[in-house]
Fold Putative signal transduction resulting in induction of apoptosis.
Amino acid sequence: MDFCCTQFGKRLFLQWLCSPCCQASVIEDRQKAVQDLLSIPNEAKDVCKLLKSLPDLERLLTKVHTQGLARKNKDHPDFRAILYEDTTYNKRKIGNLLLALQGFKTAVGIVDTLSKVRDEFSSATLSRCVSTAADGGSFPDLGEALEFFDNAFDHEEAKKNGKVTPSKGVDQDYDDAMRRVKAATRDLEDYLETQCRHFKCKATYHGTGKNRFQIEVPESASRLAGAGYELQGQRKGFKRYWTSRVKELAAHLVSAEEAQEAAIKDIMRRIFESFDRRRQEWEVAVQCLAVLDCLLSLAQYSSSLTGTACTPRILRDGEPRLSIQGGRHPCLLKHLGGENLIPNSIALGDYEDDDSAPRGARLALVTGPNMGGKSTLMRQAGLLVIIAQMGAKVPAESCELTLVDRIFTRLGASDRITSGESTFFVEVNETSAILRHATRHSLVLLDELGRGTSTHDGMSIAHAVVKELSTKIHCRTLFSTHYHHLVEGFTSDPNVYLGHMACMVENENEDDPTQETIVFLYKFARGACPKSYGFNAAKLAGIPPDIIKRAFCKSKSLEKRISLILPASS
């Protein structure tokens, strides 16, 4: 089902899958969204292409947030580590920011792509995701913020050098420091002009580092240097002086340059902080994109279904019900194709017709031959309910249900050796959880409960669990079993529906099961199956015929003994 194009969309889709929606209005709105997107295949294709180009914006926002923290903890790596590759580290941080900005520009393009058709959408959720607040939607207006960061600094230069030099008006501290540097430089230039007039010749500043701004004049003009001029050095034909005024002006410039340097050192963090101040807007945009991606995934899944597919009908009132007509297993449908699958119908709850359960029966006891499709039928029911409550179309002729609050499964067989738990203990432990937590709105799938222990114990436990589920919890349940005496005990129970996976027996032989050939029909039908045809499974597995014959004789003997111990009316 996962056709999502973005990583953050995949994460949201997984949440939808693991926790299907239990609000009818939300599910129905998603169904409308699927239909809306299926009606605009060209635009949907363009949007999917744009979504695939997006980085993982959700993760990038977290990284940028960390890099823009106003006060970092002293345990932060920036305080503890000596970054020998500081430039490389900075380039990576700048790259993350620019990647996020480019992603949000693409996001704006996605909204623009759907702006021409969004008025035709019947889904409120879809409309909100692709409309800005000005149009009554949820997607934030990112134009102003993106323009600000476009002009905040030279992106290419920052990526190349790993340093951010902000444009004018972006950072107040840096702008103030720059103004102080320019003012101090201008004062020094003005003072130099006064010295030129004083010495009546060209004067220049000379020196580096701490010896900057020594006034150099020709030796012929040095006679005009008064008591306020301190001789600092000379070279052939020239002398250099300092004055108290030039020292003062130089100190102003050094102070301004230090402030500028301090601002430069922290400018990257402040740029990231400026981005992070709009974090709520960025997160809302990502959430809108994630929902759009998930809805597109549901639409693409719905369109990929081969054969008959339908939009499930969500029932809001009445007793818990589930009706699936002509349903097919979605995983088998993908791998085998629709023409190779046999559709099956299931009805649990308040239904009454020739092919469904009797009125009020919410528990179906499923019997049938080994490998006849019982477990597949149960899994199919659970998967179709999940797909239905996600909002997608389901591979069935029709589907209607009241909402399921939880799906409980007891399928397969496994032990937990490291915990000292046997296969049977694991099964009854899982069954215990079902009995404690299931409600009348739950769907329970129990596969062959009671195996792994003695026949009497297993069948008795299975009987008690069926009774509890059908009369007290009264939830929708598919319960498969090979205990035919168990089935006989519920033949006249109005709360239990008896069904089986049909099969056809060729060369039926009451005395020699090795002569029989079982053809599985994989069709769920009314009534109980009289036999499990386990000897057929043994034959298919390659058990020698003489062993099967001996087992058959022993089976006949055991059946007689059990019929005496456990009356059919129990």
